[in-house]
Amino acid sequence: MKNSAPLPQWALFDTADSVWRPLPREILAHGFITSGGRKMSKSIGNVLRAEDFIAEYGVEALRYYFAREIVPTDDGDLTAPHFKEVYNANLANGLGNLVSRTLKMTEQYFGGRIAGGTVENPPFHGNIAPVTGFDVTGGVNVPYVVINDILPRYHAHMRAHEVNKAADVVWELIGKLDQYITDYEPFKLVKTNSKTTELVLWGVVYGLSHITEMIAPLMPQTADTLRRLIKQEVSEDVGENIIFITEPLTQPLFMRKA
User: Fold this and answer.
1) Which of 54, 59, 229, 239 would you call most buried, defined as having the most Cβ atoms within 10 angstroms of its Cβ?
2) In Å, what is the CA distance from 187 to each residue of 129, 157, 181, 191, 200?
3) Strands across the sheet with 242-246, in order?
4) Which residues contact 95 (CB under 8 A, 6 or more apart)?
């Protein structure tokens, strides 16, 4: 029939195979993708192909754009200039640069093995208020912010299917970790205080380990790469400390585009 709604994907399985499958409890349907605020049309000449973006930037960049730049239940817009701007700012200069310089320092200063704890990690500089109802014994440091603020908000947004807002929370943490490095300057601090430098870098790697798991549903290949680069050492002799074993990047996660 002309006005019949198309069958959802789960209904297209072979009948013999799907008869025992439970029906989905929820269906999340996205809106239309426009280009420059206009419906894509061959006559207008504004049709964009996913294959072209993947060839230039990689599939993970496209996944990122649709996860963060497009509201899941509303119409969204895509243009080549805006895509490049977002890619350079948030992937090449954002996540990619944070991972690169952090792992380079952990390798150069500590041979890729750093130890620390949630209490001894140095606090953030600046005015970051404690989360109401949570103990602040170790100061407002990286583990405190991740556990009591970032993770609860991320999971709340994901449960509500607010994928773009969950991605915003992840990149908020990336920004905080960038500022944390800027404040402590471990590349200078290592010359006078090796132990504090290790604890600062441990805090950044701790944050990156959680970022890895948070981006896994959005950018699974990038998450797999970070899991190979950042591992947690399992030992009964470290007490409450957590030891990370890291490897430096052999090539950029996201190459900046001119």
Assistant:
1) 229
2) 27, 36, 9, 8, 11
3) 113-116, 242-246, 230-233
4) 171, 174, 211, 222, 253, 254
How many helices (H) and strands (E) are present in the chain, helices listed first?
A: 11, 6
Q: Are 249 and 100 in contact (CB under 8 A)?
A: yes
The tokens 């649709």 sit on which residue?
66
The overall pTM is greater than 0.90: no
The separation between the first and the last C-alpha atoms of the chain, rounded to the nearest angstrom, is: 50
Pick the CATH number of 95-246 from 1.25.40.10, 1.10.730.10, 3.40.50.2000, 1.10.390.10: 1.10.730.10
Main-chain dihedrals φ then ψ at residue 127, nearest 5 degrees: -95, 85
Pair of tokens at residue 2: 């002309």
**Which of 37-46, 132-141, 224-233 is predicted most confidently?**
224-233
